[in-house]
């Protein structure tokens, strides 16, 4: 506790010291006058707008890039926040010669509209223009890969899950769970956690319309500035916001055979003040899911053949306010609320050693609501790149899990009746401060501190059980530095210290404590081989703390023969990661290849064991344990090729090994050798005349292994066709997923020393939907820096989160 208080005291002193920060920026100097440079890019022959052309603004004296953007459907681009001076505007697109225009703005006339600019076709410059064009679809930076979703015309009508399938290095299973190189990953929205993500990443992604997403950042080697959580890395979803004067927004709707979505985004800006709101919701129709569970233990076999009829529905809303006091001081706040429901009825016939014994009729209801509220202050100075910020965040969550099971004989006589209710509550307070100081154009120093105070409660309805009360406090401080070793070699590295204090009262009323301190170093070396190719070597150390889905001791009897329960005695995972990466742009192609090695100890996985209750031994308990140490070697290849300017072929291939060395006291498992996991994504996207777009894709996932289980391989496919209407202000489209197969068969075998279990789920996957999207007003998107709490391991195999541990279909 003393260490935590010292870290928090250091944080507060840093905040107090920075109260004098205005002196570092030139005191009360007058705010900078800034303006905007705009233009309309047209084809020199057809005089038609050139959409998605790359526009860069470069300082004429220093040749340093200042800002840039992409042209919209009308060929228009507007580059904001430009200080008075002389610049060069560079315009490029696939199949056109690069065009350079001299631009000048003054304090008296900060805005400069260049009018119509014409691009001429020139095959001899295709290589150079292609390089610029592809960087706007997928950008490779020193510590992350960026997929610009807004530059992909085929994203309309889908949700965040559809977008994730197109992101380099990611794999998405049929339920929407995301992995990065075969490992769990932390998902942030605008750099901060979401209460809905804490419950179920898959369900949260389904609630985000694709049209709301500006870009997706894949951070395989997070710097010390980020929380050390996430063994696989971090995914940061940046949503769209507008900084254009006036009112702008979009409306999106989708109606289909299985799921319906709707969303509204609205931004209003006047002078220094802007407001942004977003509303969205979805409804997934109840559809029958066939299930078969077979449990084999020493007393015999229990077979359950049944069916569930569940539905999902959710709503999200947010309101953000932003105010610039002057050119140096900004205050912003945002509140976001999410609610989600998953549940329905189920029934199964029971067979003991092949003899029918009865049936079970059940009903489950799982719901959660989460509120995230943050307040951020940011100050810059006359020194370009210098920035100080303070951010606070409050997260409140409530999760409810109810179930009823009525088991009877074949003749209808009662055997057992069970019902229970579990309420989970989460309260989290966060305060952080960050400071960036550029010693020069090539040397940048960062430092900061952060404190997180968490309290999680799980309240049981059974009188015989006590509530579970869990406190987790984290104090952290970090520093990083980035500089150029040579003209072509860049370095970025740092270290983060995190002190974690855990205390909880278990179901027996006993007080348990666990405190630990870790240092997390990271370093990245990046070398430019030539103007189009980069080589990167990186190392980092990460931690994965278990969230409540893993810790909650609530005994979930939704399936009375296959129970589930968390383990509050889990230790965090610790991993070391090394990566060697290469990326290049070659004649209309982009290639990003990497090799990596990961070593993780205290690996947390689900395990099965025999469970005895009231003298009955025909049951299996699924819980969690630190099963041992794993090492994984792997490779990832992302490639994109444009046979023509409007046709894109894309593939994403990931391969990694799975090998575990179990702890001495771990239960036995079926997979103690070395196994190979792989995933493959193939995509073709084509734009045609008249505003038509066609997309086809397929996903292949290999068998998935854990210490005790194996899930069979799966394959699914889909396509979409979209038509721009209303002068490209709107679009209408048709999306299909597995149109020729209603169900996806998912088979999993789990084996321990004393149990054997098979599950066969026939998941209703087929979806055909009609989509409509409409944009109004001026649309230019920016992002704001937000607080990040990327430090809790999530259970990606099931819904459940804060209070319940139930499974959703």
TrEMBL record:
Domain (TonB-dependent receptor plug): residue spans on this chain: 146-234
GO cellular component: cell outer membrane
The UniProt record lists the keyword Acetylation: no
Region span, Disordered: 787-809
One GO BP: siderophore transmembrane transport
Topology with respect to the bilayer: Multi-pass membrane protein
Keyword Glycoprotein annotated: no
Protein name in UniProt: TonB-dependent receptor
Organism listed in the record: Pedobacter chitinilyticus
